[in-house]
Design brief:
By secondary structure, the protein is mostly helical. The protein starts with a helix and ends in an 8-residue tail after the last helix.
Length: 289
């Protein structure tokens, strides 16, 4: 790279360019730095005019091509339609704030943490907010409108579904607990199971689902049935059919089947057995024996 270009661009930009060239030479796809991407999305949302002046070429080694394309689009909007940029920014910052409260509720917060713990929490928050921003962008593209508060809440609920990532090993599998928003970064060859517990469902939703199911089934639903319907809700799928309960067959239950042979004992034998039991309990009642 010519010296005059280095001096004009500055050493930070040159270092970034070299990192990009080296990655391209190795045919590696650049993966976005979650912290940097989240910070840029916030800056674009809160100060679109100032963000329009950021040189994205300085960050090519830390942002994917898709992220660069998205951020370039935000800069273009800020320069050509400031009203739209402000409105979209307000929607996104409100969604980030809305999500932060629920992240804190499940223990994902940097408050009160220091050092590596604080850094790890900040990375998880950034990862979540980036996935949420992508979900909102997908919704807008498919519906030709921005999601409202309830629709954003549904996205947050889905992304915070508890999951178990199962990674096969030589002798046994390794299970790691996490949340749905982390499923995309799981190791290769691993699988994901949703692990929703009844207590994980927000109280208001839990109550509403229970009322709806009781009306539908004509009885109080079980906790498992409430969980099933909640999963249908957050995944945006139709209601999973709930099988009709089979009445408990008391007559053919195991304890009754075991007692059946005694039902055919002669009455005299049963009477003698009763006397023996009473004599054992109260010997004084049978002095002649």
């Amino acid at each position: 790279m010519p010296m005059e270009i280095r001096q004009a661009a500055g050493m930070a930009a040159v270092s970034s360019a070299w990192g990009y060239v080296e990655a391209a030479a190795k045919r590696q796809e650049i993966e976005s730095d979650d912290g940097l991407l989240y910070a840029m999305r916030r800056e674009a949302a809160m100060s679109p005019t100032e963000f329009a002046g950021v040189d994205l070429n300085d960050y090519r080694d830390r942002l994917s091509k898709e992220a660069i394309k998205e951020l370039t689009g935000l800069q273009t909007t800020a320069l050509t339609d400031q009203r739209k940029a402000r409105e979209e920014g307000i929607t996104l910052t409100a969604a980030f704030s809305q999500a932060e409260n629920q992240l804190a509720a499940v223990g994902i917060t940097a408050v009160g943490k220091e050092g590596s713990e604080r850094e790890a929490a900040a990375k998880r928050i950034a990862a979540f907010q980036n996935v949420l921003a992508s979900e909102m962008e997908t919704f807008k593209r498919l519906n030709e409108k921005a999601p409202n508060q309830m629709e954003i809440q549904a996205m947050v609920n889905k992304l915070l579904l508890p999951i178990v990532v199962k990674q096969p090993g030589m002798l046994w599998d390794t299970n790691t607990e996490g949340f749905m928003f982390e499923a995309g970064s799981r190791p290769d060859a691993s699988t994901v199971d949703v692990a929703v517990e009844y207590a994980d469902i927000p109280v208001d939703l839990r109550r509403g689902i229970s009322i709806d199911l009781e009306r539908e089934l004509g009885r109080k639903p079980s906790e498992d049935e409430v969980v099933m319907r909640y999963e249908d809700f957050v995944f945006g799928r139709g209601p999973t059919p709930i099988p009709e309960r089979v009445p408990y067959d008391y007559e053919n239950a195991l304890p009754n089947r075991l007692l059946r042979p005694f039902a055919y004992l002669p009455a005299k034998a049963l009477g003698l057995a009763g006397d023996k039991l009473q004599e054992f309990r109260d010997p004084a009642a049978f002095p002649h024996r």
